[in-house]
Amino acid sequence: MSDNLHVVCSHCGGVNRIPAGRLEQNPKCGKCKHPLFDGHPADVDDAMLQRQIQRSDLPVLVDFWAPWCGPCKMMAPAFAQAAAQLEPHVRLLKLNTEQHQQLAGQLGIRSIPTMILFRNGQELDRMSGALDAGGIVSWTRSRVG
User: Fold this and answer.
1) Torsion on CA atoms 51, 52, 53, 58, rounded to nearest 10
2) InterPro entries, per this entry (predicted)?
3) Which of 50, 61, 67, 90 is least crowded, fewest Cβ atoms below 10 Å from its Cβ?
């Protein structure tokens, strides 16, 4: 088994092969030279979300939200704090369901905020409702082992 991981850049979508031992050494994208991790969740569109889910060897945690949603606004800072704790071992992304209604419908998003945790292109688990940063981190770590 290889100790290299495929990590998708959230800036350009480039797929980078990174030795697992280098994840915490602030690796940069070979294509666009941006840091692969910055401790903040990335806002993504349909195409970038699909690329992250399908091509990344890292677990991908997605917050499905909308700008008019009060609980979503309350959870946004907690999700950002969770990113600072979970990266670089989990990729955190945000998808605006108002702008990407078709994908949200395909994924069965019925209420927001909803978080879905993906690994190897498959949904591992989902959680609806707002959580604090500690709750997000605990929930995620309990699912990715």
Assistant:
1) 150
2) Thio2_N (IPR049299), Thioredoxin (IPR005746), Thioredoxin-like_sf (IPR036249), Thioredoxin_CS (IPR017937), Thioredoxin_domain (IPR013766)
3) 67
